[in-house]
Specification:
Oligomer: single chain
Strand content: 15-25%
Distance between the termini: 66 Å
Largest sheet: 7 strands, mixed
Radius of gyration: 36 Å
Structural class: alpha+beta
Shape: flat
Number of domains: 4
Number of helices: 15
Low-confidence stretches: 1-24, 62-66, 672-677
Length: 677
């Protein structure tokens, strides 16, 4: 890591050189204090055959598909000082061909570069190439082609640095990948040996082969860059091993899950998958490389139903509460998630953190191993328990035989009593069935509302948590104070969103646990509390809030009336008109005591509500406009609170004009003839 002062120094140098127009927008500036490893991301100049030169932007990899054209890529590097820099350059992707030039002098060539895939021959070396960069301007030129996209261009940025640092960069990747996939292979070998000693339950064997084949596929695939393999084996051999391991892992993984959840399997579908994958495995052995690799996209689409089928088996086990149901479902869903991520990588251009997919694979196999371990641990315990219980049961059988005879006589007596009881129970059942029918209707309505609430509330609560986690991950990087301050501000806003949601959930609980308690509510104090609650929003929005009432006190539950007014005023401020002066936006609250009820209205001259939306706006989680930043609970809470208080609510509105919410609540009068504006 370079020091903070060196970063300032480098930044000033870059600014100075840019001001003097000594470097173009695709120029990288190097000094003796530059970082040891530099990824050549950013702007490159693409020189395409028959086309004018253009600027392209190379993102940090890895990615699997390039939108750039075939041709020669140029990157300018400006070396400060009077001394040349002896560095090394490394091109991460394998199964590629390229010609590397420094200052128009050929430095290295790998494979045969050609736009024709039949003529093009990729190289396989994972190694750094030594280069010398002279003081002043230097140009790196790369003519580049990839096996899967022979006519594509540069799809991942090269890396430059000192020779030792580049070697360590390659070896570090080797060590991590070897550790991950070596662990998966050892896991597979362990389960195969366990099957040999156990001689039962073929799912153990299938899992071991599944783990080994998937690890074989991963360590031979083009994106892993394990230098020992690619520097000592022919590229066609590794491609065959890659696809052989891929199709074999599909076959054994399918057999593993199919056997694990065999009582839910579909025989016809299983036969089709086994036959299809077996043919694909055979094709990797007997057909030319360019034949079976053409089917890659097709296989990615076909594999999706197989993964969905596995999740179906796991789900059936889960809903039937099998002994491995939960962890089996988790393993199947995680397999689908990792496959989906790899599928997106194959068809789109974006990058993810290094080794994240590899660690995901390791997690999948650990979950699957846990599934098997849990099943057989329970089976062993059951065998031991059965042996102990068998001895005990044999002794009990003799005792039970004697008791059976006695019980037979008792049963005859009890049968007569049961017949009498049966007639009584039948009468009770008829009465209960009528009550159950009425209660069932109420429960179904409550369950539907509860299901909707739990689903939406869980998602609304999880979203700000995910945002906070992402912001924390960014904050852990090397950020400036200003950037960190901005992130903390965003985290505070996100936490505020979650806090508002929790407050509404607490409000729902308070409403549904209302026990008919009533208070003497002083309206002047209520007015002060409302103004205090919205002081900041009223100042920032410029909305005028009026609070009128014709009595001093009302007899009502203070907490619920405050919740109602709070959510109505909050909605009025949020949906005020944006195209009028702040001073014209207003919210009016009026409270009147009429005989034995209190009439309360909240009026605003805001956006209004469409006529077609009026009957739905009080439903749970309903949002009548895309402008809503809440979670659709405000008016729902108001209606629920009014209903709990035994009142009625109505909404009058005209779009782009006004909205008025009126509700009547039973309340005995206390005193009258009091008015305050």
């Amino acid at each position: 890591m370079i020091s903070f002062f060196r970063l300032i120094h480098i930044s000033l140098v870059v600014l100075l050189i840019t001001t003097k127009s000594l470097a173009s927008d695709n120029t990288l500036i190097l000094t003796a204090d530059s970082p040891d490893i530099i990824h050549l991301t950013g702007v490159w100049t693409l020189e395409s055959p028959g086309n004018a030169d253009k600027k392209v932007f190379i993102k940090d990899g890895p990615v699997n598909k390039s939108k750039n054209s075939y041709g020669t890529y140029h990157k300018n590097i400006f070396v400060e000082g009077d001394s040349a820099l002896d560095l090394s350059i490394y091109l991460p992707l394998v199964r590629t061909s390229f010609i590397l030039k420094i200052n128009n002098v050929r430095v290295a060539e790998q494979g045969k570069v050609s736009q024709n895939r039949k003529m093009y021959n990729p190289g396989m070396k994972v190694r750094p190439y030594d280069i010398r960069l002279n003081p002043g301007n230097n140009t790196i030129s790369i003519t580049y082609a990839n096996f899967a996209h022979a006519k594509s261009g540069l799809i991942t940025p090269p890396v430059i640095g000192t020779h030792d640092d580049i070697l360590w960069h390659i070896r570090k990747s080797d060590i991590i990948l070897t550790a991950i996939y070596g662990s998966i292979i050892l896991l597979g070998v362990f389960f195969i040996l366990f099957f040999i000693s156990w001689k039962k339950d073929h799912e153990i064997l299938y899992f071991g082969l599944y783990a080994i084949m998937w690890a074989l596929r991963c360590i031979t695939t083009a994106s892993k860059h394990i230098s020992f393999l690619y520097n000592h084996f022919e590229w066609e051999t590794l491609i065959r091993l890659d696809y052989f391991g891929f199709y074999s892992s599909i076959l054994f993984g399918f057999l593993f899950f199919n056997k694990l959840f065999k009582k839910y399997s579909k025989p016809n579908f299983s036969k089709i998958v086994i036959a299809g994958t077996s043919l694909m495995i055979l094709s990797t052995i007997i057909t030319p490389v360019r034949v079976f690799t053409e089917a890659t996209v097709f296989v990615h689409f076909i594999l999706s139903p197989v993964i969905i089928y596995v999740i179906y088996l796991s789900y059936q086990s889960y809903i039937n509460n099998d002994d491995i149901s939960k962890i089996g479902l988790a393993a199947a869903i995680s397999a689908m998630a990792i496959f989906g991520l790899e599928w997106l990588l194959f068809f789109q251009t974006f990058s993810i953190p290094d080794f994240s997919i590899d660690l995901g694979y390791l997690l999948i196999f650990l979950l699957n191993a846990s599934t098997l371990s849990r099943r057989f641990a329970k089976r062993f315990n059951q065998l031991e328990t059965l042996q102990r219980e068998t001895t005990i049961q044999n002794k009990k059988i003799e005792d039970q035989h004697n008791k059976i005879q006695e019980s037979h006589n008792t049963i005859l007596i009890q049968r007569n009593e049961l017949e009498k009881k049966h007639e009584e129970i039948s009468a009770i059942n008829r009465s209960l069935e009528e009550k159950v029918f009425e209660r069932t209707k109420d429960l179904e309505r409550a369950n539907n509302e509860l299901d909707t609430f739990l689903y939406r509330a869980s998602h609304d609560l999880r979203r700000p948590l995910t945002s906070i986690q992402g912001l924390c991950s960014i904050a852990l990087g090397n950020l400036s104070s200003e950037e960190l301050h901005q992130l903390l501000k965003m985290m505070r806003e996100t936490a505020g969103t979650m806090d508002n949601m929790l407050k509404k959930l607490i409000s729902i609980s308070e409403i549904y646990h209302y026990n008919d308690q009533k208070d003497i509510v002083n309206l002047n104090n209520l007015r002060v509390e409302i103004f205090s609650e919205f002081k900041a929003k009223l100042c920032s929005s410029g909305v005028n809030l009026d609070f009128d009432y014709d009595t001093e006190d009302i007899h009502i539950n203070k907490r619920l009336i405050f919740l109602i007014l709070f959510h109505l005023v909050d909605n009025s401020i949020q949906y005020r008109k944006k195209d009028i002066n702040n001073s014209e936006s207003k919210v009016e609250i009026k409270i009147k005591q009429e005989c034995k009820q209190v009439v309360i209205s909240v009026y605003d001259n805001g956006m209004g509500i469409e006529k077609s939306q009026l009957e739905n706006v009080c439903k749970m989680f309903y949002k009548a406009t895309d402008r809503s930043t809440g979670n659709g609970l405000g008016l729902y809470l108001c209606k629920a609170a009014v209903n709990k208080l035994g009142g009625e609510i109505s909404i009058l509105s005209r779009e782009h004009s006004y909205t008025e919410v009126i509700f009547n609540i039973p309340a005995e009068p206390i005193n009258t003839n009091y008015h305050l504006n």
